Amino acid sequence: MDQGTYGTAEVVARTGLTGALLRTWEERYDFPRPLRAGTSRRRYTEADVAALLAVKRRRDSGVRLASAIAEVQRGAGVAEESLFVEMRARSPRTPVHRVGKPMLLALTHAIEDECHASARPAVLFGLFQRAENYTAAESRWRELARSARAAVVFADFGTGDGTTLPGGALTVSLPPGSPLHAEWAVVVDGVDVPVALVAREALHDPRDPAPAQQFDALWTLDPAEVRDVARQCARLASASGVDVSAEARHTLDRPVPAVDAEVGAVNAAAASLIGRVLTHAAGTRAG
């Protein structure tokens, strides 16, 4: 057993809920939100078990299931704001890579290009920190949004949430104090191109008078992990009053098809290779 977490059989024994019911709740309500260990095995934390028991008590007292889950989630503060922290917690084995902004932009553009070349539409989320960063990428995202199921962009726009930009992207303005001001992300939840890149500004040495902007970056090609990040983006947008299209919600609500072990290994190897390329590139720049 992974320290501090529990498998499905242990959670079933502790809560009295069935494994099938846990999977149904996860698929329908995005609750609970187990960690993924190795392949697709679910691991639950003590907080997950407590939340499940709280929902069960409410349901047994006559509260509708959807309402019971919403009440427990609000009380537990489940709608986390930091994409980086959430992805790190859910995928603790995913390596963190220190990259400069030029390298982060190059990786972002590669993902956007691959998405644009895809034959099937995807659900897209972009976190740009500042409005001027989005302005620099606007022409690219205008084209991406035209063929997407939905495209939502986050930045300090300072305008009304839910504004539809040319091309169809929806805006979410970052509230003051949000940790997202220090984060960068591009998330593509699609059949052809499932990928999530999430980065957070790294702490700089206060002794450096002119530090170059550096980021700690995570990325994944695992469809289940990408779906987790996409769902969190959708929740954050919804919390600001911006709802994705019904077609996009249908996509995000669907369970992720099981990934063949061989395909999963290839995805992991590809992600590792990208990491090595960036590490070597960073070393070359430093030299």
In a nutshell, what does this entry contain?
The protein is an alpha+beta fold and 287 residues long. Helices cover 48% and strands 17% of the residues. The chain has 2 domains: 5-78, Multidrug-efflux Transporter Regulator, Chain: A, Domain 2; 89-286, Endonuclease, Chain A (2-Layer Sandwich).
Number of domains: 2
What's the alpha carbon Rg, rounded to whole Å? Answer: 19 Å
CATH C-level class of the largest domain: Alpha Beta
Strand order of the largest sheet: 4-10-9-8-5-6-7
- Quantity of strands, as a count: 10
Provide the residue-averaged pLDDT.
81
CATH T-level fold name of the largest domain: Endonuclease, Chain A
Q: Give the low-confidence spans.
A: none
Structure, explained:
- The chain is α+β, with helices and mostly antiparallel strands.
- It has two domains: 5-78, Multidrug-efflux Transporter Regulator, Chain: A, Domain 2 (Orthogonal Bundle); 89-286, 2-Layer Sandwich (Endonuclease, Chain A), CATH 3.30.870.
- It is built from ten helices and ten strands.
- It has helices spanning 8-15, 19-29, 46-60, 65-76, 83-90, 101-117, 131-147, 223-239, 246-253, 261-286, and strands spanning 5-6, 35-37, 41-45, 97-100, 123-127, 150-155, 170-173, 183-189, 195-201, 214-220.
- It has a seven-stranded mixed beta sheet, sandwiched between helices. The chain has a three-stranded antiparallel beta sheet with strand order 1-3-2.
- Strand 5, helix 7 (131-147) and strand 6 form a beta-alpha-beta unit.
- Helix 5 runs antiparallel to helix 8 (223-239).
- The model has no long low-confidence stretch (mean pLDDT 81).
